[in-house]
TrEMBL record:
It comes from Ornithinimicrobium faecis. Keywords: Cell membrane, Membrane, Transmembrane, Transmembrane helix, Transport. InterPro entries: BPD_transp_1_N, MetI-like, MetI-like_sf. Residues 95-300 form the ABC transmembrane type-1 domain. Its main location: membrane. It is found in: Cell membrane. The keyword Transcription regulation does not apply. It comes from the Bacteria. The chain crosses the membrane at residues 100-122, 134-157, 177-200, 235-262, 282-307. This is ABC transporter permease. Belongs to the binding-protein-dependent transport system permease family. CDD domains: TM_PBP2 (cd06261).
Length: 316
């Protein structure tokens, strides 16, 4: 098991290195001169050249890449070109905000999807199972930002149960933090719960048709007892796969939802940096998002080994 984990970790490191090269190369081919943008379009060529030297943009590309990669590893990310603000403290603060949002949304989605998806599978030939399946299908078709707008319209504007946006750190005001986290987390969780519930339904249905589960029921166990004792572990493997993908989707989907609810998270930081053409900041944020997705995939592989013993020995 440790050998397989080590192999996957080496793949993770190689993937991160390749991703960093691709992200850096993509930013290099974008049109426009960051130094001229920072000084203004009417700035003189001499001042632009001086600022390019200050930013290190006059050095060879591979030297710029090496400096940026070293900064990513050591968290010495430098300063923004226009505002001259330190990037690392802003990135840490914004990442914490997005982390609260994504983790809360995923936990809500799991709390909904696991029991609902299992019930949909067990009751797939009954009216309640069909109705739940139809509702989940509708939920899949609703974008997270649209769900957020609907929630704001009713729960914030019409009924005034929650604030319509903004953010309060949890240490500063716990109740204010929870009230502002509720609607954006629910808007993300609604869509993800619908997707996960359908995958849970499919995985559990496949398990219910297995011979060993029929044998367990023939021994006198009720359907839910047989499923709980013998089936859920096998059903968990494909669910974990989808869970990893959906967690990555949540991270990317938070970019738009943060804008809808005016949350100062990583998504808002990215969009603001794009608008002001802070390319070094955009490059760093994109790399952080890519790294998060790759790390999630690595953790999913590790969970495979914990859930399915056959993967530890290569047995099929």
């Amino acid at each position: 098991m440790l050998l397989r984990l080590a192999q996957r970790f080496l793949v993770l490191l190689a993937s991160l290195l390749v991703a960093s090269v691709l992200v850096f190369a993509f930013m290099q081919v974008l049109p426009g001169d960051p130094a001229r943008v920072a000084l203004g379009m009417n700035s003189s060529d001499d001042s632009v050249a001086e600022l390019r030297e200050q930013f290190g943009l006059d050095r060879p590309v591979f030297v710029q890449y090496a400096d940026w990669l070293r900064g990513m590893v050591t968290l010495d990310l430098g300063v923004e070109w226009v505002s001259k603000a330190q990037i690392a403290p802003q990135l840490v603060d914004r990442l914490a905000v997005t982390g609260w949002l994504v983790i809360t949304a995923m936990l809500l989605a799991l709390l909904i999807a696991l029991p609902v998806g299992t019930w949909m599978a067990v009751r797939h030939r009954h009216l309640d199972g069909v109705v739940l399946s139809a509702i989940s299908q509708i939920g899949v078709a609703i974008p997270a930002f649209l769900a957020g707008i609907i929630l704001i319209t009713y729960f914030a504007k019409r009924w005034q149960w929650f604030p319509s946006g903004g953010w309060v750190p949890p240490a500063e005001d716990p109740l204010g933090f929870l009230s502002r986290l509720a609607l954006p987390a629910i808007s993300l969780a609604m869509v993800q719960a619908s997707v996960l519930a359908r995958y849970v339904r499919t995985a559990v249905l496949e398990v219910l048709r297995e011979d060993y589960l029929r044998t367990a029921r023939a021994k006198g166990l009720r359907p839910m007892q047989a499923l709980t004792r013998h089936g859920l572990r096998n059903a968990a493997v494909p669910i974990v796969t989808v869970l990893g993908l959906q967690l990555a989707t949540l991270l990317i989907g938070a970019v738009v939802v943060e804008r809808v609810f005016v949350i100062p998270g990583l998504g808002s930081f990215l969009l603001d940096s794009v608008a002001s053409r802070e390319l070094i900041t955009v490059q760093t944020i994109v790399m952080v998002l890519v790294a998060a997705v790759l790390i999630i995939n690595f953790l999913v592989d590790a969970l495979y080994l914990a859930i399915d013993p056959r993967l530890r020995t290569g047995a099929r």
